[in-house]
Amino acid sequence: MSIEDRVRPEVRAMVRPRHGGDVWGRLEVKDFSSNVNPLGPPERLGDYIAEAARDMENYPDDSCAELKEAISARYDVPSSSIIVGAGSAELIRLFPEVFVRPGDRVVMPRPTFSEYGFACRLMGADIVDLPLPESDRFRLDAGSMIEEMAPGTRSVYVCNPNNPTARMLARKEVMEVVSEAARRDIMVFLDETLLELSERDRDVSCVQEVEGHDNLFIIRSFTKSFAMPGIRAGYGFGNPGLIRFMDAARLSWNLGTLEQRVATRLMSEEQGHVRRAVNMLVDEKERMRGEIARITSSKVELTDSYFFFHHLDGLDLSSGQFREAMLRHNVLVRDCSSFGPPCHSYSRFCVKTREKDDEFLDALQLVVDETVGR
Ligand SMILES: Cc1ncc(COP(=O)(O)O)c(C=O)c1O
Protein backbone atom coordinates (compact mmCIF):
# COMPACT_ATOMS: atom_id res chain seq x y z
CA MET A 1 0.00 0.00 0.00
CA SER A 2 1.41 3.39 -0.95
CA ILE A 3 1.53 6.28 1.51
CA GLU A 4 -1.27 7.97 -0.48
CA ASP A 5 -3.49 4.92 0.03
CA ARG A 6 -2.94 5.07 3.79
CA VAL A 7 -3.85 8.76 4.04
CA ARG A 8 -7.49 9.78 4.65
CA PRO A 9 -9.03 10.87 1.30
CA GLU A 10 -9.82 14.35 2.71
CA VAL A 11 -6.14 14.87 3.57
CA ARG A 12 -4.89 13.54 0.25
CA ALA A 13 -6.74 16.35 -1.55
CA MET A 14 -5.63 19.14 0.81
CA VAL A 15 -3.87 22.26 -0.45
CA ARG A 16 -2.66 24.64 2.26
CA PRO A 17 -4.55 27.97 2.48
CA ARG A 18 -2.66 31.05 1.30
CA HIS A 19 -2.28 34.23 3.39
CA GLY A 20 -0.71 37.69 3.24
CA GLY A 21 2.04 38.91 5.57
CA ASP A 22 4.87 37.12 3.75
CA VAL A 23 7.61 39.62 4.61
CA TRP A 24 9.75 37.42 6.82
CA GLY A 25 13.25 38.80 7.31
CA ARG A 26 12.75 41.67 4.81
CA LEU A 27 12.68 44.63 7.18
CA GLU A 28 12.69 47.20 4.37
CA VAL A 29 9.26 45.99 3.15
CA LYS A 30 6.20 47.72 4.61
CA ASP A 31 3.44 45.18 5.09
CA PHE A 32 -0.01 46.44 4.05
CA SER A 33 -1.21 42.92 3.31
CA SER A 34 -2.13 41.85 6.85
CA ASN A 35 -4.84 43.65 8.79
CA VAL A 36 -3.39 44.43 12.21
CA ASN A 37 -3.54 47.43 14.57
CA PRO A 38 -1.98 50.33 12.61
CA LEU A 39 -0.27 51.66 15.76
CA GLY A 40 1.69 48.40 16.07
CA PRO A 41 1.87 46.50 19.37
CA PRO A 42 1.55 48.37 22.70
CA GLU A 43 4.83 49.88 23.92
CA ARG A 44 4.96 47.61 26.94
CA LEU A 45 4.64 44.37 24.95
CA GLY A 46 8.39 43.69 25.39
CA ASP A 47 8.07 44.09 29.19
CA TYR A 48 5.13 41.69 29.31
CA ILE A 49 7.10 39.13 27.29
CA ALA A 50 10.20 39.52 29.50
CA GLU A 51 8.13 39.06 32.69
CA ALA A 52 6.36 36.00 31.30
CA ALA A 53 9.66 34.51 30.11
CA ARG A 54 10.82 34.12 33.74
CA ASP A 55 8.45 31.19 34.21
CA MET A 56 9.26 28.76 31.44
CA GLU A 57 10.25 25.68 33.48
CA ASN A 58 6.69 24.68 34.44
CA TYR A 59 3.91 23.41 32.22
CA PRO A 60 1.35 26.08 31.34
CA ASP A 61 -2.06 26.18 33.06
CA ASP A 62 -4.06 23.91 30.75
CA SER A 63 -7.32 25.65 31.76
CA CYS A 64 -5.99 29.18 30.99
CA ALA A 65 -8.02 30.36 34.02
CA GLU A 66 -6.42 33.78 34.49
CA LEU A 67 -6.67 34.68 30.82
CA LYS A 68 -10.32 33.62 30.67
CA GLU A 69 -11.03 35.77 33.74
CA ALA A 70 -9.48 38.79 32.03
CA ILE A 71 -11.60 38.18 28.90
CA SER A 72 -14.66 37.62 31.09
CA ALA A 73 -14.13 40.96 32.87
CA ARG A 74 -13.62 42.84 29.59
CA TYR A 75 -16.75 41.42 27.89
CA ASP A 76 -18.94 40.77 30.92
CA VAL A 77 -19.45 37.15 29.85
CA PRO A 78 -18.87 34.22 32.28
CA SER A 79 -15.62 32.22 31.97
CA SER A 80 -17.71 29.12 31.23
CA SER A 81 -18.72 30.76 27.92
CA ILE A 82 -15.11 31.37 26.84
CA ILE A 83 -12.49 29.21 25.11
CA VAL A 84 -8.97 30.31 24.15
CA GLY A 85 -6.83 29.09 21.28
CA ALA A 86 -3.38 29.38 19.75
CA GLY A 87 -4.68 32.19 17.55
CA SER A 88 -8.31 32.21 16.51
CA ALA A 89 -6.98 29.91 13.74
CA GLU A 90 -6.95 27.04 16.26
CA LEU A 91 -10.63 27.64 17.04
CA ILE A 92 -11.46 27.73 13.32
CA ARG A 93 -9.97 24.23 13.12
CA LEU A 94 -11.56 23.00 16.36
CA PHE A 95 -15.15 23.99 15.53
CA PRO A 96 -15.69 21.48 12.66
CA GLU A 97 -13.65 18.86 14.52
CA VAL A 98 -16.36 19.00 17.19
CA PHE A 99 -19.49 19.63 15.11
CA VAL A 100 -19.04 18.58 11.47
CA ARG A 101 -19.47 15.01 10.22
CA PRO A 102 -18.38 13.69 6.78
CA GLY A 103 -20.97 14.65 4.15
CA ASP A 104 -22.49 17.50 6.19
CA ARG A 105 -23.46 20.58 4.18
CA VAL A 106 -21.56 23.67 5.32
CA VAL A 107 -22.48 27.03 3.78
CA MET A 108 -20.04 29.92 3.47
CA PRO A 109 -19.82 33.09 1.38
CA ARG A 110 -17.34 33.27 -1.49
CA PRO A 111 -14.93 34.99 -1.21
CA THR A 112 -14.22 34.66 2.49
CA PHE A 113 -11.36 33.70 4.79
CA SER A 114 -9.83 30.48 3.45
CA GLU A 115 -9.25 28.71 6.79
CA TYR A 116 -12.98 27.93 7.26
CA GLY A 117 -13.20 25.84 4.09
CA PHE A 118 -9.83 24.24 4.81
CA ALA A 119 -10.90 23.09 8.31
CA CYS A 120 -14.31 21.85 7.13
CA ARG A 121 -12.85 19.99 4.15
CA LEU A 122 -10.49 18.15 6.51
CA MET A 123 -13.58 16.82 8.31
CA GLY A 124 -15.12 15.66 5.01
CA ALA A 125 -17.76 18.40 4.80
CA ASP A 126 -19.57 19.21 1.58
CA ILE A 127 -18.89 22.94 1.18
CA VAL A 128 -21.61 25.04 -0.43
CA ASP A 129 -20.34 28.42 -1.65
CA LEU A 130 -22.64 31.42 -1.56
CA PRO A 131 -21.19 33.78 -4.21
CA LEU A 132 -21.26 37.40 -3.04
CA PRO A 133 -22.53 39.68 -5.83
CA GLU A 134 -19.76 41.79 -7.35
CA SER A 135 -22.49 44.11 -8.74
CA ASP A 136 -23.49 44.96 -5.15
CA ARG A 137 -19.88 45.37 -3.95
CA PHE A 138 -19.92 41.84 -2.50
CA ARG A 139 -22.59 42.64 0.08
CA LEU A 140 -23.63 39.59 2.11
CA ASP A 141 -27.37 39.49 2.36
CA ALA A 142 -28.89 37.64 5.34
CA GLY A 143 -31.84 36.51 3.19
CA SER A 144 -29.61 34.74 0.63
CA MET A 145 -27.76 32.96 3.41
CA ILE A 146 -31.05 31.80 4.92
CA GLU A 147 -32.19 30.54 1.49
CA GLU A 148 -29.09 28.31 1.37
CA MET A 149 -29.98 26.58 4.67
CA ALA A 150 -31.30 23.45 2.97
CA PRO A 151 -31.87 20.15 4.84
CA GLY A 152 -28.56 18.49 5.71
CA THR A 153 -26.87 21.81 6.51
CA ARG A 154 -24.78 21.51 9.67
CA SER A 155 -23.32 25.03 9.89
CA VAL A 156 -23.03 28.40 8.20
CA TYR A 157 -20.09 30.80 8.33
CA VAL A 158 -20.20 34.58 8.63
CA CYS A 159 -17.08 36.75 8.74
CA ASN A 160 -18.01 40.24 9.99
CA PRO A 161 -16.53 42.33 8.48
CA ASN A 162 -15.72 39.90 5.72
CA ASN A 163 -12.17 39.15 4.67
CA PRO A 164 -11.25 40.11 1.94
CA THR A 165 -14.25 42.24 0.86
CA ALA A 166 -14.39 44.50 3.96
CA ARG A 167 -18.22 44.55 3.99
CA MET A 168 -20.06 44.48 7.31
CA LEU A 169 -23.46 43.17 8.36
CA ALA A 170 -25.49 44.93 11.08
CA ARG A 171 -26.09 42.96 14.29
CA LYS A 172 -29.76 42.66 13.42
CA GLU A 173 -28.91 40.92 10.12
CA VAL A 174 -26.45 38.52 11.77
CA MET A 175 -29.02 37.66 14.43
CA GLU A 176 -31.64 37.03 11.73
CA VAL A 177 -29.27 34.36 10.35
CA VAL A 178 -28.65 32.96 13.86
CA SER A 179 -32.38 32.77 14.73
CA GLU A 180 -33.37 31.18 11.43
CA ALA A 181 -30.45 28.73 11.73
CA ALA A 182 -31.61 27.81 15.26
CA ARG A 183 -35.07 26.96 13.91
CA ARG A 184 -33.43 24.56 11.45
CA ASP A 185 -30.89 23.13 13.97
CA ILE A 186 -27.93 24.72 12.19
CA MET A 187 -24.82 26.13 13.90
CA VAL A 188 -23.47 29.59 13.09
CA PHE A 189 -19.74 30.27 13.13
CA LEU A 190 -19.24 34.04 13.42
CA ASP A 191 -15.78 35.56 12.93
CA GLU A 192 -15.46 38.97 14.66
CA THR A 193 -11.66 39.11 14.62
CA LEU A 194 -11.68 42.17 12.34
CA LEU A 195 -14.51 43.94 14.16
CA GLU A 196 -12.71 45.10 17.27
CA LEU A 197 -10.75 47.73 15.32
CA SER A 198 -13.98 49.25 14.00
CA GLU A 199 -15.81 52.20 15.55
CA ARG A 200 -19.00 50.15 15.10
CA ASP A 201 -17.80 47.25 17.27
CA ARG A 202 -20.15 47.94 20.19
CA ASP A 203 -23.20 48.23 17.92
CA VAL A 204 -22.41 45.27 15.70
CA SER A 205 -20.84 42.63 17.97
CA CYS A 206 -22.98 39.62 18.89
CA VAL A 207 -20.86 38.50 21.87
CA GLN A 208 -23.68 39.34 24.31
CA GLU A 209 -25.99 37.04 22.33
CA VAL A 210 -24.18 33.75 23.01
CA GLU A 211 -25.91 33.17 26.36
CA GLY A 212 -29.31 33.04 24.68
CA HIS A 213 -28.33 31.19 21.48
CA ASP A 214 -26.75 27.76 21.81
CA ASN A 215 -26.15 27.48 18.03
CA LEU A 216 -23.78 30.50 17.93
CA PHE A 217 -19.98 30.42 18.25
CA ILE A 218 -17.92 33.64 17.89
CA ILE A 219 -14.17 34.10 17.51
CA ARG A 220 -12.01 37.13 18.29
CA SER A 221 -8.26 37.57 18.34
CA PHE A 222 -5.34 39.35 20.01
CA THR A 223 -3.48 39.24 16.71
CA LYS A 224 -5.35 42.04 14.96
CA SER A 225 -6.22 44.26 17.92
CA PHE A 226 -2.72 44.31 19.42
CA ALA A 227 -0.68 43.77 16.23
CA MET A 228 1.10 40.67 17.49
CA PRO A 229 0.52 37.78 15.09
CA GLY A 230 3.91 36.39 16.18
CA ILE A 231 2.33 35.44 19.53
CA ARG A 232 -0.52 33.04 18.91
CA ALA A 233 -3.56 33.94 21.03
CA GLY A 234 -7.24 34.08 20.13
CA TYR A 235 -10.52 33.41 21.93
CA GLY A 236 -14.08 32.33 21.35
CA PHE A 237 -17.51 32.74 22.93
CA GLY A 238 -20.40 30.30 23.05
CA ASN A 239 -23.11 28.97 25.26
CA PRO A 240 -21.48 26.98 28.17
CA GLY A 241 -22.96 23.73 26.80
CA LEU A 242 -21.23 24.27 23.46
CA ILE A 243 -17.94 25.49 25.00
CA ARG A 244 -17.80 22.39 27.26
CA PHE A 245 -17.53 20.09 24.21
CA MET A 246 -15.07 22.32 22.37
CA ASP A 247 -12.90 22.45 25.49
CA ALA A 248 -13.08 18.67 25.86
CA ALA A 249 -11.75 18.17 22.31
CA ARG A 250 -9.00 20.82 22.16
CA LEU A 251 -5.27 20.22 22.22
CA SER A 252 -3.76 20.07 25.73
CA TRP A 253 -1.58 23.07 26.69
CA ASN A 254 -2.74 24.83 23.51
CA LEU A 255 -1.51 28.17 24.86
CA GLY A 256 1.98 28.36 26.33
CA THR A 257 2.69 30.28 29.54
CA LEU A 258 4.16 33.13 27.49
CA GLU A 259 0.99 33.51 25.41
CA GLN A 260 -1.31 33.25 28.44
CA ARG A 261 0.55 35.81 30.56
CA VAL A 262 1.05 38.31 27.75
CA ALA A 263 -2.54 38.02 26.54
CA THR A 264 -3.86 38.47 30.10
CA ARG A 265 -1.89 41.71 30.53
CA LEU A 266 -3.01 43.03 27.14
CA MET A 267 -6.66 42.25 27.79
CA SER A 268 -6.61 43.89 31.25
CA GLU A 269 -4.29 46.85 30.69
CA GLU A 270 -4.11 47.81 27.02
CA GLN A 271 -7.69 48.49 25.90
CA GLY A 272 -6.72 52.17 25.55
CA HIS A 273 -4.28 51.16 22.80
CA VAL A 274 -7.09 49.57 20.79
CA ARG A 275 -9.34 52.63 21.32
CA ARG A 276 -6.60 55.00 20.13
CA ALA A 277 -6.24 52.99 16.92
CA VAL A 278 -10.01 52.95 16.33
CA ASN A 279 -10.27 56.74 16.78
CA MET A 280 -7.32 57.40 14.50
CA LEU A 281 -8.66 55.10 11.76
CA VAL A 282 -11.99 56.93 11.39
CA ASP A 283 -10.41 59.96 9.68
CA GLU A 284 -7.41 58.21 8.19
CA LYS A 285 -9.43 55.72 6.15
CA GLU A 286 -11.46 58.61 4.73
CA ARG A 287 -8.23 60.42 3.80
CA MET A 288 -6.85 57.22 2.20
CA ARG A 289 -10.02 56.79 0.18
CA GLY A 290 -9.71 60.31 -1.22
CA GLU A 291 -6.03 59.92 -2.04
CA ILE A 292 -6.44 56.50 -3.70
CA ALA A 293 -9.30 57.91 -5.81
CA ARG A 294 -7.16 60.90 -6.82
CA ILE A 295 -4.07 58.84 -7.70
CA THR A 296 -5.91 56.10 -9.59
CA SER A 297 -8.54 58.47 -11.10
CA SER A 298 -11.23 56.02 -10.02
CA LYS A 299 -14.22 55.98 -7.71
CA VAL A 300 -13.29 54.42 -4.37
CA GLU A 301 -16.05 53.51 -1.91
CA LEU A 302 -15.48 54.04 1.79
CA THR A 303 -14.64 50.70 3.40
CA ASP A 304 -16.70 49.23 6.28
CA SER A 305 -13.44 48.14 7.85
CA TYR A 306 -9.82 49.33 8.11
CA PHE A 307 -8.70 47.69 4.88
CA PHE A 308 -9.64 48.27 1.26
CA PHE A 309 -10.69 45.66 -1.29
CA HIS A 310 -9.81 47.69 -4.31
CA HIS A 311 -10.73 47.01 -7.95
CA LEU A 312 -7.69 47.38 -10.20
CA ASP A 313 -9.71 48.28 -13.31
CA GLY A 314 -7.99 51.59 -14.02
CA LEU A 315 -4.51 50.05 -13.79
CA ASP A 316 -4.84 47.15 -16.20
CA LEU A 317 -2.93 44.93 -13.77
CA SER A 318 -3.94 41.61 -12.22
CA SER A 319 -3.86 41.26 -8.44
CA GLY A 320 -0.56 39.35 -8.64
CA GLN A 321 0.99 41.90 -11.02
CA PHE A 322 -0.07 44.77 -8.74
CA ARG A 323 1.54 43.00 -5.77
CA GLU A 324 4.82 42.65 -7.70
CA ALA A 325 4.68 46.27 -8.90
CA MET A 326 4.12 47.61 -5.35
CA LEU A 327 6.78 45.30 -3.94
CA ARG A 328 9.35 46.88 -6.27
CA HIS A 329 8.70 50.01 -4.15
CA ASN A 330 8.94 48.04 -0.89
CA VAL A 331 5.21 47.89 -0.17
CA LEU A 332 3.47 44.53 0.24
CA VAL A 333 -0.24 44.20 -0.64
CA ARG A 334 -2.37 41.04 -0.73
CA ASP A 335 -2.56 39.20 -4.03
CA CYS A 336 -6.24 38.21 -3.90
CA SER A 337 -6.20 35.66 -6.73
CA SER A 338 -6.19 32.77 -4.20
CA PHE A 339 -9.74 33.83 -3.20
CA GLY A 340 -10.92 32.74 -6.66
CA PRO A 341 -12.67 34.71 -9.44
CA PRO A 342 -13.32 37.64 -9.66
CA CYS A 343 -10.75 38.47 -6.95
CA HIS A 344 -7.81 38.31 -9.39
CA SER A 345 -8.91 41.86 -10.38
CA TYR A 346 -8.83 43.17 -6.79
CA SER A 347 -6.15 43.96 -4.26
CA ARG A 348 -6.46 44.09 -0.47
CA PHE A 349 -4.45 46.52 1.62
CA CYS A 350 -4.92 48.00 5.07
CA VAL A 351 -5.01 51.54 6.47
CA LYS A 352 -2.19 52.46 8.82
CA THR A 353 -0.99 55.76 10.30
CA ARG A 354 -0.78 58.92 8.18
CA GLU A 355 3.01 58.70 7.91
CA LYS A 356 3.02 55.04 6.84
CA ASP A 357 0.07 55.55 4.51
CA ASP A 358 1.97 58.33 2.75
CA GLU A 359 4.67 55.78 1.89
CA PHE A 360 1.94 53.51 0.50
CA LEU A 361 0.48 56.38 -1.53
CA ASP A 362 3.92 57.33 -2.91
CA ALA A 363 4.42 53.74 -4.06
CA LEU A 364 0.92 53.70 -5.58
CA GLN A 365 1.66 56.92 -7.47
CA LEU A 366 4.87 55.39 -8.87
CA VAL A 367 3.03 52.25 -9.98
CA VAL A 368 0.32 54.34 -11.67
CA ASP A 369 2.98 56.44 -13.47
CA GLU A 370 4.80 53.31 -14.64
CA THR A 371 1.57 51.65 -15.79
CA VAL A 372 0.25 54.67 -17.65
CA GLY A 373 3.64 55.17 -19.30
CA ARG A 374 3.79 51.57 -20.65
C1 LIG B 1 -10.88 36.96 9.16
C2 LIG B 1 -9.79 36.26 9.91
N1 LIG B 1 -10.11 35.43 10.90
C3 LIG B 1 -9.18 34.77 11.61
C4 LIG B 1 -7.83 34.93 11.33
C5 LIG B 1 -6.82 34.17 12.12
O1 LIG B 1 -6.12 35.02 12.97
P1 LIG B 1 -5.33 34.56 14.24
O2 LIG B 1 -5.16 33.07 14.19
O3 LIG B 1 -4.02 35.25 14.16
O4 LIG B 1 -6.15 34.95 15.42
C6 LIG B 1 -7.44 35.80 10.30
C7 LIG B 1 -6.01 35.98 9.96
O5 LIG B 1 -5.63 36.54 9.00
C8 LIG B 1 -8.46 36.48 9.57
O6 LIG B 1 -8.16 37.34 8.59
Key phrases:
2 domains; binds pyridoxal-5'-phosphate; 15% strand; 41% helix; Aspartate Aminotransferase, domain 1; Aspartate Aminotransferase, domain 2; 374 residues; alpha/beta; three-stranded antiparallel β-sheet; seven-stranded mixed β-sheet
Strand content is 5-15%
| Poorly predicted sequence stretches spanning 5 or more consecutive residues | none
For this structure, the CATH topology of the largest domain is Aspartate Aminotransferase, domain 2
Write out the strand line-up for the largest beta sheet, numbering strands in chain order.
2-8-7-6-5-3-4
| Broad CATH class of the largest domain | Alpha Beta
What is the helical fraction, as a range of percent? Answer: 40-55%
Number of strands: 12
Shape: globular
Structure description:
It is a single chain. By secondary structure, the protein is an alpha/beta fold. It folds into two domains: 3-41 and 272-372, Aspartate Aminotransferase, domain 1; 45-270, Type I PLP-dependent aspartate aminotransferase-like (Major domain) (Aspartate Aminotransferase, domain 2, 3-Layer(aba) Sandwich). Helix content is 41%, strand content 15%. The chain has helices at 3-6, 9-12, 45-52, 65-75, 88-99, 114-122, 142-147, 171-183, 201-204, 222-225, 240-249, 257-269, 271-296, 319-327, 354-372; strands at residues 30-31, 82-85, 105-110, 126-131, 153-159, 187-191, 216-221, 234-238, 307-311, 331-332, 334-335, 346-350. Helix 6 links the parallel strand 3 and strand 4. Helix 3 (45-52) runs antiparallel to helix 12 and helix 5 (88-99) packs parallel to helix 6. The longest helix is centred in the last third of the chain and has 26 residues, at 271-296. Bound molecules: pyridoxal-5'-phosphate (PLP).
